[in-house]
Recover the amino acids of this structure.
């Protein structure tokens, strides 16, 4: 069951593309730190030898999804989104589900793979939605100063 965010906002303001990119850069540093710690642990477990291959890449992929899914589903915000006063939510203002987080994550990868077209799509979309907003039925909103 999806929980509704506690604050009631009369009108939701969509987050700008620039603010979204700023939050993504912040989160990219956190994901890189997770990858480095995982790499250090993997090398340590592998007697100091380099770790590579599909299993290791899959672990990094799953850890990256776990990072985003945890913050999106539990809090509605990653640390980068908190810094830039953004929140992901359903269209009706509720916490997103794990299924929506997975769809959002996978579609965002597709958006990047198409040279960012899925992100820039919001500049031409009537409802200012990216591909991952549309496919996951979510939105990124700008929080007002009273919101946490």
């Amino acid at each position: 069951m999806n929980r509704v965010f506690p604050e009631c906002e009369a009108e939701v303001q969509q987050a700008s593309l620039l603010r979204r990119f700023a939050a993504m850069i912040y989160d990219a540093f956190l994901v890189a730190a997770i990858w480095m710690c995982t790499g250090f642990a993997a090398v340590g477990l592998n007697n100091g030898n380099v770790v590579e291959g599909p299993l290791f890449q899959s672990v990094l992929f799953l850890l990256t999804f776990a990072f985003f899914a945890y913050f999106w589903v539990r809090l509605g915000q990653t640390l980068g989104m908190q810094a830039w006063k953004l929140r992901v939510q359903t269209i009706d203002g509720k916490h997103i589900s794990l299924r929506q987080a997975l769809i959002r994550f996978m579609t965002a990868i597709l958006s990047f793979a198409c040279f960012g077209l899925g992100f820039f799509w919001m500049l031409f979309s009537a409802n200012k939605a990216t591909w991952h907003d549309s496919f996951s039925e979510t939105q990124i909103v700008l929080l007002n100063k009273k919101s946490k």
The two ends are 22 Å apart (CA to CA). The chain has one domain: 13-142. Helices lie at 17-45, 54-74, 79-83, 98-113, 117-120, 131-136.
